[in-house]
What we know:
The chain is α+β, with helices and mostly antiparallel strands. It is about 20% helix and about 20% strand. The chain is globular and about 30 Å long.
Amino acid sequence: MKVHINQDVCAGFGICVGVCPEVFELHDDGYATVLVDEVPPDLQDLVRTAESQCPARAISVSDDASS
Length: 67
Ligand code: SF4
């Protein structure tokens, strides 16, 4: 599973960082970045929670067919 942040719409609320700091980090410029290339299985539920709670809907999750 991969996660992507659209930095054009991310408003830097930091909710994703609060939900899953292992995956999301708030950049000094006021938007979030993704720390991992592939989301580990034990963090996928948290990433989906962050996706649903992001007020800007900037987070998108993609499942690859192999997992
Ligand atoms: S919750 Fe959404 S808007 Fe807020 S920092 Fe994370 S990606 Fe950006």
